[in-house]
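To whoever picks this up:

The nightly regression suite flagged DUF4974 domain-containing protein as changed. Nothing in the input moved, so I suspect the structure step. Input below, exactly as stored in the fixture:
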Amino acid sequence: MKKYSEFEIEDFLTDEFFVRWAKSSDKEAAHFWEKWMENNPAKREVVMEAYYVVSSVGYKEEIHASDQEEIEWLEGILKQSRGDEEVVGDVKHGGWAWFRRIAAGVVLFFCAFFGYKMVTAPKRVVPEPIATELIYKENPAGQKSTFKLSDGTVVYLNAKSDLKFPNRFSDSIRMVELTGEAFFEVSEDKERPFIVKTQGVNVKVLGTSFNVKSDAEVAVALVEGKVTVSRDTGGQVHLSPNEMLTYKEDGKVLKSSFDPFEIVGWKDKYLVFREDSFLEVKNKIEKWYGVKIQCARDFQSDWSYTGQYYQESLDRVMEGISATSEFSYQIKDKKVILIPNPK
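Regenerated output under the current build:
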């Protein structure tokens, strides 16, 4: 029989013990799978993808497992708690014989109990499924949006970004998937952690305010509360307020302080430049206004620009930049053409 470590997503979707965890807020099952993913970090992404699929369908009534499922589920938790490698349909033999005897006694007790319950229990009612819709919010360049999720969490979605989330969260987890940049004001819920997935990075919180930017690099900046940032490949970092974690393109991981106005000012309609290179200025303007910038010459590597604008038009921003630089500009539809000043 297959071990969980050999499972693919379709195997998890048909495993009763796994589906039980994804469909309920059972703390024992949650502990089992959290511990298992810590020991098998390479499988975390597959497990969470399967979890997301299963949890995308809700039920009006709680699912009551069969007696045999209850026993198998209990055996699974007992095996995990003593450190044995789990095997589907087969119990791996090892040390701790005394513990196995106790576990066996517990299982026998539950067998007797459930045997009595089978005789006296009323017929189980099959619950009526409720379909959960996956929602996609997408902002093109030049457009931002603010909206609330079903749990009350407020999302500020930046331009050239998109967010995928269910119209209702499960009873045990709140998970969204981000491409681009967003600021989250997460409603506190100690029973259901809030997780943002982006490019193999997972940001886990209970209730807090933070910014996630995902492009060539992934940067997580915490404004209030606490977050735990982890990779699907393993390892995790805890952040405190005013700390930012950056996963660089070259694989390096940097933890630093940050200027909240520079990093999250965008959500309050501030366009901020802090000693930005020409490429950084170009990218920010194209993303902010939904235009393309064309330049007839290369800027010197030491060129930089510092400035800030609040709800200003593209023309006013370009006027401010050109006043301290050696170029003029023309705006034609969705193009900005930079023209070098004659020397």
